[in-house]
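Batch job 17 of 40 flagged for manual review because the log was empty.
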Amino acid sequence: MSIERPVDPSAISRRRFLASTARLSAGLAAAAYGASSLAFPRRALAGPIPDAVVELTCAAGTANVRAGALTNVWKYTGSLTSGPANTLATLNDSYLGPVFRLWNGQRLRVGLNNNLTEDTITHWHGIDAPAEDDGHPMYAVGAGGRYEYDFEIHNRAGTYWYHPHPDMRTAVQVQNGLAGVMIVHDDKEALLNLPSGEQDLVMVIQDRTFNASNQFVYQVRGMAGSYGDTILVNGKPNYTVSAATRPYRVRILNGSNSRIYKLGFSDGSPLYIIGTDGGLLTRPMKMPFAILGPGERLELWVDLRRYSVGQQLKLVNQPYTLTGPSIPLPQGSAFDIATFSIDRNETDTRQLPNYLAESYLDNVGFDEAYAVNALNPRVINITNSGGHWRFNGLSFTMMGYEPWEIVSKVGPEIWEFVNTASNAQAHPMHLHGPQFRVLSRSLAPGWEASYETVKDGFVDRGLKDTVMVWPGETVRILSHPPTYSGLFMYHCHNLEHEDMGMMRNFYVAP
């Protein structure tokens, strides 16, 4: 029996939901920092944190993506009304939205102005926000409309992001360029002396196809999603970082609609991972490569001190096996993503810390033994019906949920994502609200060939909000007790899968 929770717009705070026809101009008042110089304001560790008040506008525009004609895009632009001067920074010459730099405990107020010709709403991916501020499509505003967000940041230091979330139009709006990065800092991170300023790099990886006029070509490949034939980083092909002989902190977001990356280095050197979706890890991880599905993030420590001026280090996609559509740049093929070009000597004596952050297990009750449904986990079968992906055979309805989709505030809960349908594909599963931890992975017989090419690259430590579920896998997670009541969402972050209905609500009772 499906339960409907009708939402009376009069019950929604009027300051949040204003279907106004007034269109607000938004100049970029924040200083324009380059991709490699995203400095953030330092503050006294015990001092107050000023509110950050931002006007954010989504509208059509153009961008210089490739040589030749400008590309028509949709993009976020922002202006800082009040708050620390470096709250917003731009990625140079990119269609991507401004980078937010925020502090744990800071209050964020955003006025979202929709200057598109269709409905939209923005989701703060990975941020633990109230239901009204989470970007549920029920709150989408029409052309010329405005939505006001107001919430506190309670996340650990880490890399998060924001993107549109209207029902059945998320993939198109992200494909057209609407996305941006959010970075959260906290007092404990500030004591680690990690690379900062010009050594704190953001890399948003996306794939796009262009026509002869340099315009995006959007093609959905059946049930597989959309795949481009050109790899962009921060909105640019052949992305190159002018680098020095020193360590860098590299924040990587898979902002692609559907493509999965197997990240590695061209010279075979290992990855040193210091953070994932939910912030810094307890300790660094050394891995041969890393699997990064749509929506997932990684933070790397990249030490270039062993290279000489004139050398290059490439971040590459390593080959793996996964059945997919016939496309010019197949899923799992080998290609370059970005290049570190070492062009100068600089001295930097800092070392990779052995300890980065408190363990997520330090949170009282955030352990499998405390799961309130340990004897009856929430099982989510990934199913297919009539060429559409579903959860337990069900599609998305705007405010509907089943009794088994009611989530407790009493303690953590175990979810099991089962991906053993006969035509299974890989699915990046995303939960809105608090982060979760990955408990286990198990593989059904007969799926080993593909799995062997990726299994050593799943980054399952730390806190997550998106987890890859490979064909044939069952992945068990432990979700943190919700902070807020209301209607939240879980869905596949292959955006075309989400838009075809592979998305459901869960309800957190007061």
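Reviewer: the log was empty due to a logging misconfiguration, but the result itself is present. Residues 170-175 form the longest helix (6 residues). Unflagging and moving on to job 18.
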